[in-house]
Amino acid sequence: MAQTEPYITADGRQIGGVLMDMRGITLRFGGVEAIKNISFDIREGEIRAIIGPNGAGKSSMLNVISGFYHPQDGEVWFRGEKRKPMKPYQVARLGIARTFQNIALFEGMSVLDNIMTGRLTHMKTGLLAQAVWKGRAEREEVANREIVEKVIDFLEIQAIRKTPVGRLPYGLKKRVELARALAAEPKLLLLDEPMAGMNVEEKEDMSRFILDVNDEFGTTIALIEHDMGVVMDLSDRVVVMDYGRKIGDGTPDEVRNNQEVIDAYLGVAHE
Ligand SMILES: Nc1ncnc2c1ncn2[C@@H]1O[C@H](COP(=O)(O)OP(=O)(O)O)[C@@H](O)[C@H]1O
Ligand SMILES: [Mg+2]
Description:
- The protein has 271 residues and is of the alpha/beta class.
- Helices cover 37% and strands 25% of the residues.
- The chain has a six-stranded mixed β-sheet, with helices on both faces. It has a four-stranded antiparallel β-sheet with strand order 4-3-6-7, covered by helices on one side.
- The longest helix has 21 residues.
């Protein structure tokens, strides 16, 4: 894809310039090279899928983007600037939020409180300031609540807002995790297998929410997904990884017809 001019997709969404640019990323764990000199970009407004067999390095790539892992080689560019090595909370402050392959919520806490934790990166008022300047802390709390309520409405989880997360079925936990990420009002949202383990109906719901988030808030989305039907339906472009290498990159149609991708991934049975 040489095209770098903004364009409108067939379904009327606007795609802008490059938002995230990964250049020559290499990541090693001891002797294991999880990512081998991979470059790809994510454009503003895009839904970008990352696919490939288990162990290909997909989650590692999201972890590099979100600052959990630091590559030995390569550059991460975000909004036209080269990013210095950063801690995850600093990356979050730049406007990058994520969900995890294995759900990471506070099981004993309510849905509402879990989603409120998504606002933490935005809270300017520390404990001391709260004590001496109550008004400001209260205004901040009200503003945070408003955003959280908007997310709860949007994801249609009003009915479970007080339920402890531990009691929810799997599909709803995944939705709460998405809600927490959205509460941070991210510019870029990273979803690691948001539909893994879901039944058909849950997948349809999640697909619709992902599209709606992208459409209504203009959020750029990078997602790892195994269900090829979902990938083909949702994504504007797809990166294909295999054993830490990039073996394909393009529109869903381009990737689907790429022989190396068929041999390594699409043509073989996988979950
Ligand atoms: N924290 C880690 N320590 C050591 N090895 C890791 C770590 N995370 C991932 N790996 C290794 O990196 C490779 C890629 O893993 P991962 O990124 O989880 O793949 P995927 O998400 O595509 O299934 C695997 O060989 C995995 O064992
Ligand atoms: Mg993974």
